[in-house]
């Protein structure tokens, strides 16, 4: 998880940093904290990164934290924004940019831990899963972890970030459950996450593991357009 702390007051910055780092230690995933002490530094960071969780001083010297939050929101509708302030003056305005919380300085450990707990709840509710039958059992697989799905004969192999899950389960049933905006059916028997495609030129699709597959002739133009449109949309979000 990428965390951004924007605070231009050194004393307030140190207090917030201590509480955020302490709360992050209880979070199950690895966290990276980026600190920006000016609006300019914050904007420079946003040119290359999109944070998951933002702690924003609402009274910045160069601009208001609300304006910076609007810039973040233009890059990502998923980023969770928490305002840090010494006044309730901008409380209503802060929620106009979809702020998750509004904390009076200095933040306490219980307040920051609550932010992390709420963040984890939203992440769990936003996660998508597919269900695959293996004999009498059903396996629940997080969609975000799927790299590609391949069928050979009657066996379907679901290649994920943590390993391969094999099942005698129709590919068409898996295809129905996948997000069509992120996954591409390259050819009969192969569906891949577009994030896992290294290149798609000529008649072949090359995956990031080096495997190369011929693209279906029937949908070649459509598939290539969909892949390039997806790449462009990802660049725009950065």
From TrEMBL:
Residues of the Response regulatory domain: 2-120
Against SMART domains, the record matches this protein to: LytTR (SM00850), REC (SM00448)
Q: Which UniProt keywords apply?
A: Activator, Cytoplasm, DNA-binding, Phosphoprotein, Two-component regulatory system
Q: Which Gene3D superfamilies match?
A: 3.40.50.2300, LytTr DNA-binding domain (2.40.50.1020)
4-aspartylphosphate PTM sites in chain numbering: 57
InterPro entries per record: CheY-like_superfamily (IPR011006), LytR-like (IPR046947), LytTR_DNA-bd_dom (IPR007492), Sig_transdc_resp-reg_receiver (IPR001789)
Classification via Pfam families: LytTR, Response_reg
Q: Which GO terms describe its molecular function?
A: DNA binding; phosphorelay response regulator activity
What function does this protein fulfil?
Required for high-level post-exponential phase expression of a series of secreted proteins. May play the central regulatory role in sporulation. It may be an element of the effector pathway responsible for the activation of sporulation genes in response to nutritional stress. Spo0A may act in concert with spo0H (a sigma factor) to control the expression of some genes that are critical to the sporulation process.
Q: Which PANTHER family match?
A: STAGE 0 SPORULATION PROTEIN A HOMOLOG, TRANSCRIPTIONAL REGULATOR-RELATED
This protein is called: Stage 0 sporulation protein A homolog
The taxonomic lineage of its organism, from the top, reads: Bacteria, Bacillati, Bacillota, Clostridia, Eubacteriales
């Amino acid at each position: 998880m990428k965390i951004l702390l924007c605070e231009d007051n050194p004393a307030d910055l140190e207090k917030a940093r201590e509480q955020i780092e302490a709360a992050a230690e209880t979070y199950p995933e690895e966290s990276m904290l980026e600190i920006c002490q000016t609006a300019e530094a914050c904007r420079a960071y946003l040119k290359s990164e999109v944070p998951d969780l933002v702690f924003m001083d609402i009274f910045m010297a160069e601009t208001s934290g609300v304006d910076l939050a609007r810039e973040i929101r233009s890059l990502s509708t998923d980023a969770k924004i928490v305002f840090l302030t010494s006044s309730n003056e901008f409380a209503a305005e802060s929620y106009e940019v979809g702020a998750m919380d509004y904390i009076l300085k200095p933040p306490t450990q219980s307040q920051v831990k609550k932010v992390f707990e709420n963040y984890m709840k939203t992440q769990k509710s936003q996660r998508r899963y597919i269900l695959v039958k293996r004999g009498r059992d059903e396996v629940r697989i997080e969609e975000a972890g799927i790299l590609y799905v391949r069928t050979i004969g009657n066996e379907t192999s679901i290649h994920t970030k943590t390993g391969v899950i094999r099942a005698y389960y129709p590919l068409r049933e898996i295809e129905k459950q996948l997000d069509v905006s992120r996954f591409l059916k390259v050819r009969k028997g192969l569906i891949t996450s577009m994030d896992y495609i290294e290149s798609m030129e000529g008649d072949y699709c090359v995956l990031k593991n080096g495997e190369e597959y011929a693209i279906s002739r029937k949908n070649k133009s459509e598939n290539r357009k969909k892949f390039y449109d997806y790449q462009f949309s990802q660049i725009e979000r950065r």
